[in-house]
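Supplementary Text 2. Reproducibility record for the structural model of the 529-residue chain.

All settings were left at their defaults, and a single model was retained for analysis rather than an ensemble. We include the record here because the model underlies the residue-level annotations in Supplementary Table 4.
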Amino acid sequence: MAVTQRFPWKWLRRGAQVFFLLAFLWLFRKTDYSGGNELHAAVNWLFRLDPLVAAAAMLASRTFVPLLLLSLIIVALTLSLGRVFCGWVCPLGTLLDATGRIAAPLPQFHAHRGRWRRVKYFLLGVTLIAACFSVPLVGYFDPFALLVRCLTFAVDPLLNRIVTAPFTWLYHHAPESVSHVSEQVYQFLKDTLLPFHQTTFLLAGLSFGMLLIVFALEWVERRFWCRNLCPLGAMLGLLARFALLKRRPARVCEGCGTGVDCAEQCRMDAFNADNHYSPEGCALCMDCLDACPTLKPRFVLRKDAGPTVHFGVSRRHLIATVATGFAVPAALQMFRRNGFIHRRLIRPPGAPEEARFLDLCVRCGECMKVCPTNALQPTLLESGIEGMFSPRLVAKIGYCEYNCTLCGQVCPSGAIRALSVEEKQRTVIGKIEFDKQHCLPFAKGIDCIVCEEHCPVPEKAIRFRNVEMTNHLGQRVVAKQPYMEWDLCIGCGICETRCPVPGQLGVRLIRTEYAPKEVPAQPATAKPA
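Retained model, structure tokens:
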């Protein structure tokens, strides 16, 4: 099966890239709350196709994860055709190709081309070895995690604000005839382009900055991330060394007289210093076929032995990779506080115990994107450095909707188990405690029943007792003081979200192990409400 210049490979590849990028963006938009509790499409299938995510999650959790079996499709495709995924499918690679048209490499970096190539193998090795010690690093380096997380935390909320602002101004200030038309346009955008509602995320700037660096590196080399840093690309590159599809000739032609330098034009730098073709670097862009006027280069299916070209990782680098992979878990252990977990660290319903949750979570941000109340936020250091970007419920921002199970539906790795509505309503994720220094009935003797009114549990997990006390004015009053029924509270956090006390709230959601299990005994002066 020969491939020649006569076939329009460039346009076919670009068409495939545009198709998969649009499919990715469409799935990204469909991974959003839309007023219901069912998602019919989600971007999580991309993570399930990712063999790096599959390997890291299963090594870290030491269990077989059936959801990630789809990654074998990419493995089989790579063993057949090489790194075609990187050149034809990957949405981040497509965006980098587009960026390369406006961010050409600067001349001063040309002499250093190729010196960073080993880094991606280093990151791959460290990620997989650290995963064996339950230190999940894949969420920091996986290209899908970087892209989806940045779009979720930063780009999507910013896009919504920018697009919504002029329509809001027209609605309030323009004549009715103009606002009538603008509202129809805005509704169309809401249905097709914009998220369901405005969201705000912690660590948005950090997520945006990480992806911005990936794009800024295009000034150093074309596809710098793919060539030198991407651990998924490194894994696929190692598999591509044994692919059936091979380039012939296996080195750059010498003295062809056409003036075309295949090695110089290769966007992935797939030719080594001796101008030998290195299959682990080739993304099947077919540029060398399109550029050659002699029609000599071609890709053919062959079953001969694997390549003998060394891929640039010395024994010294291999030892450094293994040593770092062992050192990272040891270093993180020094900063852990004997299993201490922040008392306000509340995980989504369906999450297993903390260690296993961190092993499986790939920090993609999909559960946070789909949360209808914006309650799920990225963790900073509440669970250690290795827990950064994993989801936590921040009840001051939003609450866990009683009838919602969307986060479990979109989780690509099973870190959040998919629950039925009935299971969700019985799942305890935390408990509440009342701050008697700020809760109005305790601190000032003023009746307030907001928390009880909003409690979604049918039997009401928040109840009251009448207590005679001296209020903040020095008067003797009977106040309705709230208390929690331990067996009924599921930790949804709506009482904290709705608490009317400004500043320091009168009620807060905490981890179950930090909450008092027994309801305090009633004072002698108390009268049941």
